[in-house]
Amino acid sequence: MAVYTHVPAEEIDAFLTRYDAGRLVSAKGIAEGVENSNYLLETTGHDGSGHRYILTLYEKRVDEADLPFFMDLLDHLGARGCLVPRFIADRDGQRLQTLSGRPACLIEFLTGISLTEPTPEQARATGSALGELHRAAEGFPLERRNTLDLAGWHDLAARCGEDFEQIAPGLAVRVRDELAFLDAHWPTDLPRSVIHADLFPDNVLMLGDQVTGLIDFYFSCTDIRAYDLAITHSAWVFSHDGATFFADRAAALGAGYESAHGLTDAERAAFPILCRGAALRFLLTRAYDWINTPPDALVTRKDPLAYLRRLDFYASANPADLLGA
After folding, report:
1. Which carries the bigger pLDDT value, residue 188 or residue 34?
2. Is the keyword NAD assigned to this protein (predicted)?
3. What is the Cα–Cα distance from 59 to 206, expressed in whole angstroms?
4. 3-class SS of residue 2
């Protein structure tokens, strides 16, 4: 989440009159993330008891044409028991609006906090929640191409070009070599499904060791199912700087996923390659954003080198260590 478009409070208050949400009490911009403009809204509520919502304005990588996919996916998952935030319709039944020249939605607020240093038990709960999501996603009829697939990584690398050297000497060559490796080894015959594709700790809400919500589905797409676990692995089992691998978190994450869904033998064999792809994907998007984020944006830039360290780990790790025995 982030704030690129600044919306005056009076415009937000007028926007809310379309809903049974009450009047605006406060609006706070949310600085985390890099994709959309987000505000936490406090309102009087339709009955005066007070309520919270997330107001999202879509920009940058989110294509307005993709929003029905995201909305229908969350309806599908929610109907099957997944703890996901619903898009709220106005009095005319419309979920998608326009605000400050941007597509905009009012979204349910879920309780819980995002973790900074997850424990193994919290990693286990997240693995289980991801497995439950994959089970719930079965039968979802829509598809969305992953624009950040192997072809998308090549495109991002080309757009970064020699600017990689602003981040670290030799990074351009390292990325080129890894792309060549993945071109030769990326699996093409594993089960595919709708995946979250961005299940970082800040997209999992928790109270204690219990998951209370999975949020931010704007990268969700149709791709290799086990790749979703690889992305989650890259986000949950390392220190923030990518320098330390936590084997206990990794084993717990794998055990949680196994309890709710599980991996096939082929998925398990391909998992180290999928992890290398996940690390490269976030190295590239972080590098691109590091180079191109406007200096006046209220946004927290994320260190690309934290994912270079993950990539180096995956390239040399014993495969048996990634998810535990």
Report:
1. 188
2. no
3. 28
4. strand
Q: Which of 285, 279, 272 is nearest to 316 (CA)?
A: 272
pTM score above 0.70: yes
CA 58 to chain CA centroid, nearest Å: 15
Fold: same for 9-108 and 120-321: no
CA distance 115 to 240: 12
Among candidates 146, 144, 138, 129, which has minimal Cα distance to 256?
129
- Pair of tokens at residue 98: 């326009």
Domain 120-321: CATH superfamily, name plus number: Aminoglycoside phosphotransferase (APH), C-terminal lobe (3.90.1200.10)
b/e per residue, 203-215, with b = 16+ CB within 10 A?
bbbbeeeebebbb
Dump pLDDT digits (tens) for 77-128.
999 999 999 999 999 999 999 999 999 999 999 999 999 999 999 999 999 9
Q: Are 12 and 55 in contact (CB under 8 A)?
A: yes
The CA-atom distances, in angstroms, between 111 and each of 14, 27, 208 are: 26, 17, 12
Class of domain 9-108: alpha beta
If one counts every other C-beta atom within 10 angstroms of the C-beta of residue 44, the result is 15
Task: Identify the CA nearest to 273 among candidates 325, 229, 212.
Answer: 229
Tell me: pLDDT of 298 over 60: no
Local structure of 274: helix, strand or coil? helix
Contacts of 13 (CB under 8 A, 6+ apart): 23, 24
Q: Residue ranges of the domains in the chain?
A: 9-108, 120-321
Pairwise CA distance, residues 74 & 88, whole Å: 11
Residues 6+ apart with CB under 8 A from 14: none
Q: What does the buried/exposed string (b/e) look like for 66-103 if buried means 16 or more CB atoms within 10 Å of the residue's CB? A: bbebbbebbebbeebebbbbebebbeeeebebebeebb
Which residues does residue 206 pair with via DSSP β-bridges, in sequence order? 113, 211
Cα-to-chain-centroid distance, residue 54? 16
Euclidean distance between CA atoms 61 and 83, whole angstroms: 25
